[in-house]
Design goal:
Blueprint: E1 3-5, H1 13-16, H2 21-33, H3 94-110, E2 114-117, H4 127-137, E3 142-146, H5 151-157, E4 163-167, H6 173-178, E5 181-185, H7 186-195
Parallel strand pairs: 2-5, 3-4, 3-5
Antiparallel strand pairs: 1-2
C-alpha cells in the first residue's frame, strides 16, 4: 500500500479559508449530544416517609411544618435538583458541519498527520496485520477511513487500542479532531476534495 502524506499545499482553497470557530461549535454540539441526561434527585414527593404532621400547627413556639421530608429538614427532598427532561441538543447547520470538517482536515495537513492510501484492506482479518499497518505510520493513534468496511478489515481493526475504523459516511469533524492522525482511502479523499 503506497502512502501519501497530504500537505497544506495539496488542499483545495476552500479548506484553508475556514474560521476555526466552526470546528469549536461542531465539537461542542457533538459532545452535548452524547450527554446521557440521567442526573436525578428525589424531590419531597419521592422521598420515603413524612406522612404525619410532625407537630401541632400552633402553640409550640416553632415554625409550622407539614412534613419532615420538606427540603429544609435533614433527610428531606432536594429543592432544586437537575431536570430529567432537559434537552442538551444544539443545532449545527449542514454547511457549518462541512466547514468544521474542512478545518479539522486542514489542521491535520498542516502538521503532516493526514495520510492517503490507495486501499485499506486487511485480507487476513488478523489484528497483528492491522497493527503492523498502523505501526508503519509511526503515529500515536489513527482514525482509519474506508469507503466501505469489509468483514475482514472490521475484524482486524476492532481490537486495536490506537486505531478506529470508520466508513466514509461516518467521518465527521469531531472524530478528525479527536485523533492524532487520519488515514483515508484515495477514493474517499477524492470525493471529499471534489465537494469543496
Amino acid at each position: 500500500m503506497s502512502t501519501t502524506v497530504i500537505k497544506t499545499s495539496d488542499l483545495p482553497q476552500a479548506f484553508l479559508e475556514v474560521h476555526p470557530h466552526n470546528l469549536y461549535l461542531y465539537c461542542k454540539a457533538y459532545a452535548a449530544g452524547l450527554r446521557a441526561n440521567t442526573a436525578q434527585t428525589k424531590n419531597r414527593s419521592a422521598v420515603r416517609g413524612g406522612g404525619k404532621k410532625p407537630w401541632a400547627q400552633k402553640g409550640g413556639g416553632r415554625a409550622r411544618a407539614g412534613s419532615l421530608r420538606s427540603p429544609i429538614f435533614v433527610g428531606g427532598g432536594v429543592a432544586f435538583g437537575p431536570s430529567t427532561n432537559r434537552n442538551y441538543n444544539q443545532k449545527v447547520n449542514k454547511k457549518q458541519k462541512k466547514l468544521a470538517l474542512y478545518h479539522a482536515v486542514a489542521e491535520l495537513a498542516a502538521n503532516d498527520r493526514l495520510f492517503v492510501v490507495d486501499s485499506i484492506t486487511i485480507d487476513s482479518g488478523k489484528t497483528k496485520d492491522a497493527k503492523a499497518f498502523v505501526d508503519g505510520l509511526g503515529q500515536r493513534d489513527v482514525l482509519v477511513v474506508k469507503e466501505l468496511i469489509d468483514d475482514k478489515s472490521f475484524l482486524a481493526f476492532r481490537n486495536l487500542q490506537n486505531a478506529y475504523l470508520v466508513e466514509a459516511n461516518e467521518l465527521n469533524a469531531y472524530l478528525a479532531a479527536a485523533y492524532h492522525s487520519v488515514v483515508i482511502e484515495k477514493a474517499v479523499w477524492e470525493k471529499l476534495t471534489k465537494e469543496s
